[in-house]
Design a protein that fits this description.
The chain has 13 helices and no strands. By secondary structure, it is mainly α. The chain has one domain. The protein is globular, with a radius of gyration of 19 Å.
Length: about 300
């Protein structure tokens, strides 16, 4: 049973990656029809409200009590994830290709492990350092290619990188809270709180809250239900049985999928150096995860 829990954790994270790999693709198709911040506000507010009845039933059934400190932690998660990280991700798609944003966002494991060290003082072995170095080196190759060869808009790169950094912090902070309360409860309340914190930003920028062209409704429903509710619940479920660093590093598997979707469906130009940088990142993942197995950090024991 303990081994099954680990396998279920990996399965949940693999499904999460498959879903998340379509985020930039779908968002890019509507980014000029609806303001990026409005996309983010609507997706998380709607997702949180849709999850609320199930969350209340879960709280009552399990006799779970949310303390004041728990609520503060959930609010912080909402702001870091919804208000900051994913908002920046949607904004970056206005200035950069979907494939580029997807690859940059997948550097979040580098930041996650950095925050893991700062907050929990987790040791970084030489082998893991090599894995993270390769991930960083892959990013350097891609940045050089996009900025100096493809003349990509630097604003898209910077906002995507800031999004990855803040999402890395979210990953580290989310694990302990979701372990205690469960992914459904944490997601529901953090989504709503994060969206509410985003509301004054939209009002200040004179962006409508609920008015948008109904032609983008199918994409908005997919982003809200599949990429916000289903994907996030799967992600936090997977983290329940695996270390936070492992969960974040699996997102390194997202680039080839996102690149494939962007090439096939958006007809984006994919250069050889761009593919090389993505391959270097994938190599970093393999080395890092090998060290986790070798050191016994990933075991068959259930993480309580």
């Amino acid at each position: 049973m303990l081994l099954d829990n680990r396998k279920l954790g990996y399965l949940a994270l693999v499904l999460t990656v498959l879903l998340f790999s379509t985020l930039e693709l779908v968002s890019k198709t509507i980014t000029y029809d609806i303001p990026p911040l409005q996309i983010n506000f609507l997706r998380f507010l709607a997702a949180g409200l849709l999850m609320l009845p199930f969350t209340l039933v879960t709280l009552s059934k399990n006799h779970t009590r949310i303390s004041g400190s728990d609520l503060i932690k959930i609010a912080i998660l909402g702001v870091v994830n919804v208000t900051v990280s994913v908002s920046l991700l949607h904004v970056s798609l206005k200035y950069a290709n979907a494939s580029l944003v997807a690859v940059i966002f997948c550097t979040n494991p580098i930041f996650a492990n950095f925050f893991d060290y700062l907050i929990y003082r987790k040791n970084l072995t030489l082998v893991k350092a090599v894995g993270l170095f390769l991930g960083t080196a892959g990013m350097v190759v891609i940045f050089y290619t996009e900025i100096f060869i493809q003349s990509a808009d630097v604003r898209g790169i910077i906002t995507a990188l800031l999004s990855a950094c803040s999402y890395g912090l979210y990953i580290v902070l989310a694990k302990s809270t979701s372990d205690k309360l469960g992914g459904l409860i944490v997601n529901c309340y953090s989504f709503i709180i994060g969206a509410l914190f985003l509301m004054p930003v939209l009002l200040a920028l004179k962006i409508p809250l609920f008015r948008f062209d109904l032609s983008v409704l199918p994409q908005m429903l997919y982003i809200t239900i599949m990429l916000t509710i289903v994907a996030y619940v799967l992600f936090l479920y997977g983290l329940k049985f695996l270390p936070a660093g492992t969960g974040s590093l699996i997102f390194f598997a997202k680039p080839p999928l996102a690149i494939l979707w962007a090439f096939l469906l958006l007809h984006e130009t994919i250069t050889l150096p761009f593919l090389l940088g993505s391959f270097i990142i994938m190599a970093g993942i393999g080395i890092y995860n090998y060290d986790l197995y070798k050191s016994g950090i990933i075991t068959t024991e259930k993480s309580d």
